[in-house]
Amino acid sequence: MSQATLAAAAAFSVVSALVYFQVARVVAMRSVSADASLAATGFRLWWAALAGSTLLGSLDELIAVFGEPPLGLLIAVGHISLALTCVALWGLLYYLLYLFTGRRRLWMPLAAFYAVYFFVLFGWLLGADATGVEVGRWSVDVSYAKDLADSVLWLPVLAFLLLPQILGSIAYFTLYWRVEERSQKFRVAVVSWSIIIWFGSAGVASLSEFGQEDLWQVTSRFIGLAAAGAILAAYRPPALLRRTLRVEAL
Amino acid sequence: MSGKRLSTGIKGLDEMTHGGYIPGDAVLIAGSPGTGKTTTAMHFMAAGVEAGEHTVFVTFEYLPQQIYRDAGNRGWPLEQWEKEGKVKVICTTPDVLMMEADQGQSLLEEAIQEVNAKRLIVDSMTHFEFLGSSHNDLRQDLSGLMNRLRLLDVTTVVTHEIPQIIGPAVRISNWGLEFLVDAVILLRYVELEGELQKAINILKFRGSDHDKRYRRLRLDQGGVTVEEEFAGVENISGGTATRKIAARAEELI
Question: Would an 8 Å CB–CB cutoff place A148 in contact with chain B?
Fold first, then answer.
């Protein structure tokens, strides 16, 4: 039974990753001024790194369909995924900070912060002493000698992983009233609320017991995929949406 | 007051001032080094030659040869104009100018009468700060000079250097020169998109409405050009301008 759910989880992850890659490709097509180019790159990196991280997660799930993945592989994938997550968060936050402040130089302190964050997490995971692989119904995880949730770092780590997207998306949504073009208003609304619902629901679930339920596992993957699809549609709206809402593709 | 205006010699600045300088007024062009203060003043002189009005050009900074060369590089045959009696160049020092002013008919007033000048350029007022007078005395003396020039119906353009290259705070002068004149035009540097660009803004223009926006200033071989406003940009007065959030959102969303 877990093989079927793991396969389904992997399929969700692969499809989601492909959608994120497509979003990265679409936003890369936009030409911007030299001043905004790093911010535009940051936004592309957010989607591309998210895609990469999601794809790596699907690798674990796919291997687990056929047998227990090696611990070393799982740890390596986890570390790479962690690095990609930090790159993604840097990209998203720099994009948002540049949008709101216009200060290009903020990339440096932000990069320094996420470099430190990565090494703190890396050290934390190393220190937690990985002991084996836990193949669950929906995911494959590394088991540690020390319970990560007992650590004082648990909440700050979770906060810095989830809060930037949620708070950033709320701030992003305020741009709805600052842009004038209808298509831009549409993009702002869809992108910001997709991310808020997606990461917000994940955050709530991770803090509750409900997070382990099968129903939530299925629901969360559909939420993630729907959010990814909605975001892609924000940049490449289908014909029906273009006609009904009078919006244009990027 | 009649509606007559005197062209500044710069099309964009004429637009900003809604026609040019008001005859008889004293105009201060203040700015950081290299922003084009002297050249802006020279445009007024050149416009005067074109309009049949003569100019006295007082410089405390340059020798006549330098002035002729710089003007010549911009296409203004200043030496020729001087020979034709259209312009009078005076190279002197502020203390000589002020000393002679105290003695009745001064060098300045003689020069104005000699070429029947209706325009006066003084480049630059910064040198008066080195006279050693107290700020009050300096202000009083120059106020008297400005009033005499007004009585002579001479439109005066003075330049003044602001030592600050870039940054939020701008102090025009230490002794209130900006309060003695009728108009203040500010030339400054602003960092935008990694480049040091020049901006022009009218801080004060007594007796008339004016464009209150910052506009781009270009200084090249042809002189000074006042270009379009800095659209979609904010914090120019802070020295490091950023494009407005709406402009950034327009581009990135």
Answer: no
